[in-house]
Please model this.
Amino acid sequence: MAIAVVALIAVGFVREMPFSDLVLMAIGLAVAAIPEGLPVAISVALAIGMRRMAAVHVIVRKMPAIESLGSCTLIATDKTGTLTLNQLTVTDICLPDGTSLSCVATEDKREGTESLHAFSPAGRRQIARLMRAAALPNEARLVHDGDQWKGHGDTVDVALLAAARQAGIAPDQILQAYPPRSRIPYEPDLKFAASFHAAEGCVRVFVKGAPETLIDMCEAMAADERTIAIDRRHLLRQKTRMAERGLRVLAFAEGEIAPEPDGRYGPHHLVNLVFLGLAGMQDPVRPEVPSAIRACYGAGIEVVMVTGDDPGTAGAIARDAGLRFKAHQVATGDTVRDAEKEGEDALDRLTRNTRIYARVSPSQKLAIVLSLARNGHFVAVTGDGVNDAPALKHAHVGVAMGHKGTDVAKESADIILTDDNFASIVAGVREGRVSYANIRKVVFMLVSTGAAEVVLFLLALPLGLPMPLLPVQLLWLNLVTNGIQDVALAAERAEGDELSYRPRDPREPIFDRLMIRRIWHSTLVMGCGGFAIFWWLLAQGYEETQARNLLLLLFVLFENFQTFNSRSEHHSVFRQPFFSNPLLLIGVLAAQGLHIAAMYVPGLRDVLQVSPVSFAEWGILLLVASSVLVVMEMEKRWDGRHLTRRSARSDT
Model:
């Protein structure tokens, strides 16, 4: 554009045009060539995108994340609360001897109705013993609210307290029998929680946690009212059967240790424990998740699960949620750790094909995210804990949970989900693509109309015609009539197929091959069309002022038609719902109305050197201006057929 302006100034000097006219022309063309309304329009598009995302439970903390979310090629999601409802209920209890209890909960999932009368007194005591180990190393609480019990705290702990109450275990009563002395809170890296309680002549230890972890801590297991040597393979088979049903499985153990004089107890005391049994908790998949995951695959977005749960549980939930994976595409935290020891190449090979990461620690989550990025993915990752903050911060898009997320996780994330729902991420991806598409629409409209004015001058001045538009008329076109319509384009709604095509390459420039070709073609139509009309008017005996008056109106009409052309990059303007963007219609009418008013308002008409035109002239200019609509429609139709043929060849 700068070269064109310099060339026009050189032509002006050769033609001995007044220096003042050349300066004003250069300023006017600079305004035409530089889309000064673009920053405002982009800000409006992103602001509208933020508002629309908020309506689908996605709060954007950093504005660039709107477009980034629309570009993601892979979503690394956790399981509990994101893919599932996070409404855990203890549904199964399995004792070491193989005895099972199916628990049935009431609607509020806080008070059970299943009795234990079918078990022998010894069996009931063994179940009560297990439930006691579930209730003591527990940081939740149940509060009686009217005729219901309400849980406060971690959902796992709440579910265990509810099951303990169902078995007749009241936490307040057992705390009186076993006064607390120390506690080891649950940590993902530890995979267990423990509490130490004073007992007669000793300290009682109660532990809950991952079955594999607790089985290694135990040397015996409970059988009726006695203990026998532990059968680790048998217990692991029990756990596997429960996990394959999609249950989240926890194990429980207890033991006795000698009191410590200083009252300090730690993990090193958790040895020679007695294994008490397993509890399986059900957390149903959110009803909307399977369709959301199908939408991801349709949009070319891969989905992987990163969870601390057992591989069997993770796989069962993944199947219910609709994730596509095979048995060899499930990796555990131990596998990730081994790959990390071998180096980045080994980890990258692992993450290239893995779709489920189970028993993963938060520290490994960051390594997985960085590896996925090295493999060429644009990664959106979910998290809620303090330890998730590094992964959220280093992902291309960090997505924190609004309900269960910690403040540290939220501060590290770009986006917050107010409902902790995976489907909301997909809705956010859709709105992110809409926002980016709207930015492209604004760029196309502004650059093409501005370039057309430069082409008009490049044709007119070297061929000996007078200046086709005055500098003030150029400013009027670009700052007034065009400035109204580009902001309206930023408010375009979704076209409906945003999730039907693959994500764009984040490295792809906004001026890609399609954009350049469309700008070039529409610029030639408008620039050459304007030149032809200006030349014809002068040839018909019109004065320069009258010819400029009609040419200015023609370019306003060109802008109106180009605004409608810009509503969709791929679809016909006649396919777009006419009233889906009222702001656009108002903008086009306002631009045309302002120009018509300028023809009649004293003072303004003198400044712009415009005057009313006849209906016949209106008709001719409208017909010429519609040519840009016809050309763009033909090009979209050709592009559509070309893409259809290419898709058919790729399918075969």
User: Anything to note?
Assistant: The first helix runs from residue 2 to 14. The chain has 24 helices and 19 strands. The chain has a mean pLDDT of 87. Residues 469 and 552 are 7 Å apart (CA to CA).
